């Protein structure tokens, strides 16, 4: 028997998923155990073993590999619990990481925050000034040495840093990605002073043009590397003691994993470790369902995440923002567009109803949690509307108080707006959904796509309550709510089904057409580097494949676009083909004729992604077929459409639904971990894997449009 | 030769008053709504449509940035996008260059009045203009494309996109001629002309426009970016109107302006009745001008209105620094938005209703044709903004909560460094260096200004990485850094500005052509508040025949001007010259003003500033009265500091 | 009512120093009429004043400051042409 396990550790819950090769699955949800998340990890393993009804030791003994999504890296950076890092850089440029291209004052902030300019600020310094040393050395844009490395200066700087308590050293010199000799020599000099010290070079961590984000990436890697090592090493030892013979793998932001032994050296790639599981889950599910293009929406209690799967592959980005710093590491592109169920509804000083961007967070949370939250949230509105069953929230783990929700909505929204409590709650529900549609549309359109070509997947505790509305507004083809075997632990499912993915990149900015021989050589050297790293993983792969891409841009234009490059030896025609592919992709992204070919093309960065497919890929089992017409478990009053008002609505217990069962809105489907809302005009069917698939009656019957006419206000009130 | 008034040019100047709602414009049918419809919009519909209209201006901005081929647009965010109602009143401006969102209304009104009969305003038309007397941009480089949106045969609303273009002709590259004396030295303004006619780009108009530029292809691309942005907006707006109906969408637009107005009035009523005056100085109106030119403003606040009276401002000058009424408004709006309206919708159409302006035509910030306005945006418009910033911040300082939105003056001017010549690949190039976007922000009532945090009128500016500049242009940086003592001293320090120092590098022509223009050299421009000192003066230095190449070969990267050898020249406010192979250029842009008495600053904060290189030991001692335990900073000597501060308090008031 | 970090409206509508309580102005219409005023060369403002103004203009430039008459806390600073009046004024009704 060979098991694969996915363990996803979030701030509140640790989700676990296990599968064998014969379609046997189990899932577990246990509380996370900060500050030592490893305890929760081990509890989750025990829980899985219980679900499978085998001893934990046997489960571990028969497990091929465990894929771990960890917040360790992210938590270190967010809380500042990082290694004390010394930083060496080119003389004259130490301030680059404090100037932050000035974008650091607002990067990652919403427009509400940016409008309040006097209250915007840069984040605290990445490295204290006294731990930054400038070195006499200079390389130019061609990689030529302008000023040789001052080795004595390096020795002195290293001694000073060590005396100042540096636990690790980050090195980022100008143009090091063109010529890494100085950085490499510095590492030798450091190790001569301090053998075994953790050292990261920008030419290895992020060999990409733009010194600000390259330095930030190198420094953050150095800050979290030692911490990640200190977390994984004992965890792995404990797992071995308990019988694990297979591998411990760590999910990276890129959507593929890496061995735990190899992870600390490339620690920065594990930022986003917990974000990408959901998108990978969607990718796998889309493979199973032949969905092709997917908008992945994960609406939880405190965040709303959006990702895309285009033609079966997750959309990627090469930069991300953390703590207002820009990091350059390839990742699955996951956008945080809102505050999830915790988004606060409020009346602004102009008497307008607003939803978000402030969030009640996990603590105190929505008013209905009864944990001290006094402001109304989206979750409170959902509860008042009857969408959420107060006794069935998070599978009954949390009891909700409708009285508290009604009270705060009455006081803070209904009264100042002159609405009934139901009307106010319905308005919050509609506004949340419309804004979600605006923001998701932006994500989709900005990636050059049309939402009408996509299926929308909705998961997370709150997503399925809202998805029918926002998906319809977007014009998405259909909605898939994955509530089959993977329901509660969809991200953990994604982890268990992932591959080893390693990325290597290097900027080689040059005018197109570049020399084919040099370009081939550049890609081959990246592939050699990746082959070595793949071997270091200590795993057997079913297949290994390399995917090349190059970031190109029009000389005068800002946007670099990742463009696929053919494998093998490249000739002039292939280089021309890359240029043509770039222009096609640019038009697709930004519109026909928006490029400026007269300025010429530049090739900026070469990148190779190596994917090693793992031996076990869990298959999802078929859902039991359903007989006849599904029978509701009950009826309650629910408001799903503001133009219709409260109406008696059929409630279905998901566990009684079989594949093929059909449901028409208005209806509510209650599953152990979530609730699916089907407003009027929504049609639902349970597919063979147990997912609920929603489609919509033809346009024109949208409730919101009718609510929107200026003159219908009076009749609305009567109908509610 | 003095500037001679041009008969017939008055037609292009205009007031800033909104149009009469009942005015008719030829046969044009305007879509209007009545007060009842505006009042009838429910809370839900209002918020859903409002959010979508904001998203539309975001989409416009994205469209411009992606298509533009100019770092000034893509990195510096020097562009604007807005939605206006049927009469041209601005409903929503994007978070870009707020100066450029400040006078699109004037352009819309003028176009309605002057183009509705001939050539007519039709569905699918778009108008191009770069005439700052009419509105839109602040100087000729800011080119506006205005697009009327028709729905069911009626003119429903307008969208406008405006962006800085790198070059539109004139005597010098970049259209900034430091020797200019009037507008005829510059790019000659274009009043609104039909650039897109019933959905088709007009080739004749496009040629007429692009023929004047040194980089016509680049400017042609940006033209398409702006047309594209309007098209994106029109598509989204039409979908919105299809769904909710024209009356509802229009009612929301009107309510957004009403809402902004109502809330700004309510906020003004929270503030005391009074008058606040300020002045802003600019040294040098063109190359070789040694005069100092002033803008004076007296802001009166009565009940729920603000009145800005610029009486006493100097007459327009024979030079390049004047601005038109559009520039003056561009100096007011960014301050109103960031300081008074951070929590109020950015609907200038409503905000302007709370504001009266008195300004005499023919003055430096309300000049008449044909005064030179080539640098209007970063000269008299920016200086107006500095003066307005002081008055609004002082008024806000009286309120415990509202004062949190105020700062001292941010980055006193734009430090223009324009490079042109032959790049390392042998191609021609012209570019504006955007390093100076990293100016210092003014100090707050409860904290220091943001170091290298930006400029006031562009909330989201950027600088390019050194590596991107070195890859793109024939230059090599010796340093780019934050500058000591550049933030205005105070109990709360102004944010520091920075400097760049570079040499021409690898150009087949050896050197590069350099245009420099920045005021604030004779006297500082980013003033402090409540006793806080102004930020440092602007400081640019040209080192001829330096020894830098020898020093580099010897293994040393110089960090100080004194170490560069050669002959050192402090650069005047305006200069056009060539930078030779052994020359070095140092440019030091401004920080933000301080706030409060520097002798009241926490000594530990001063010591920390010294350790971080934000304040020099000399300034710590002479300005802050802090005696350091050692020269490296980090610790203050409490007893000696006490004694020193007592002494300075007497000395500076001349009581010793 | 506090007017800024240094000043407050005292009893009877006069303007007082928040640091020492001394009267700085007899009313909010003349808020600084009892303050001490000085005029010094701009270089006294510190090392941030980089070049001699005479390099760029023939007009004399000065540093003007206003202080509390009692505790000498700094209330106002400006660097302006010496031949100009002080345009930076304020008053409340």
From TrEMBL, chain A:
- Cite the Hydantoinase/oxoprolinase N-terminal domain residue spans from the record: 5-192
Pfam families assigned to the protein according to its UniProt record, in alphabetical order:
Hydant_A_C, Hydant_A_N, Hydantoinase_A
| Span of domain Hydantoinase A/oxoprolinase | 214-501
InterPro entries attached here?
ACX-like_C, ATPase_NBD, Hydant_A_N, Hydantoinase_A, Oxoprolinase-like
Domain Acetophenone carboxylase-like C-terminal per the UniProt entry, residue ranges:
517-688
Q: What is this protein called?
A: Hydantoinase/oxoprolinase family protein
Organism, as annotated: Streptomyces rugosispiralis
From TrEMBL, chain B:
Q: Where is the Hydantoinase B/oxoprolinase domain?
A: 42-598
Instruction: Give coiled-coil spans as residue ranges.
Output: none
Q: What domain of life does the UniProt record list for this protein's source? A: Bacteria
* Pfam families reported for this sequence: Hydantoinase_B
Q: Which InterPro entries match?
A: Hydantoinase_B, Oxoprolinase-like
Annotated PANTHER family = 5-OXOPROLINASE RELATED, HYPOTHETICAL 5-OXOPROLINASE (EUROFUNG)-RELATED
Put simply, this protein is called: Hydantoinase B/oxoprolinase family protein
Automatic annotation (TrEMBL), chain C:
Region entry Disordered, spans: 35-54
Q: Which domain of life, per UniProt?
A: Bacteria
Q: What is this protein called?
A: Uncharacterized protein
Tell me the classification of the organism that encodes this protein: Bacteria, Bacillati, Actinomycetota, Actinomycetes, Kitasatosporales
